Amino acid sequence: xxxxxxxxxxxxxxxxxxxxxxxxxxxxxxxxxxxxxxxxxxxxxxxxxxxxxxxxxxxxxxxxxxxxxxxxxxxxxxxxxxxxxxxxxxxxxxxxxxxxxxxxxxxxxxxxxxxxxxxxxxxxxxxxxxxxxxxxxxxxxxxxxxxxxxxxxxx
Length: 155
Prior knowledge:
The protein contains three helices and seven strands. The protein is an alpha+beta fold. It has a single domain (3-142), classed as Nuclear Transport Factor 2, Chain: A. Strands 1, 2, 3, 4, 5, 6 and 7 form a seven-stranded mixed β-sheet that branches. A hairpin with a 2-residue loop joins strand 4 and strand 5 (96-109). The protein is globular and about 45 Å long.
């Protein structure tokens, strides 16, 4: 197993664990400062549409999103459980690595009701160096065009 593959696999696992364990204040730490995070549908992605359900253009925007989630947004309490596929390394160019990783996210409501919330893939650009892999761009491509109104927690 290459070091790059190991670093990205570890980052993916820690990313999912951070969200699933409600350590959301640490979520922006997986990204470089000049990052993008976008959630879109497979159809919009296939059509080349740039807009998304969620769009953050910097690490600061990610931090603001978590602050809003904690302090301003009103929603029924719930949590996620991520199941990730193995990352597929698509290209390596210097310290930049592009990868694709399939995911399934289950949503667990406070009542205990559990359902598949989202399936899709992460299309990522990582910056790898110093024994770390940080996300420069994460495009979350959801398989379904239908997005639940409770999309407050990051995927």
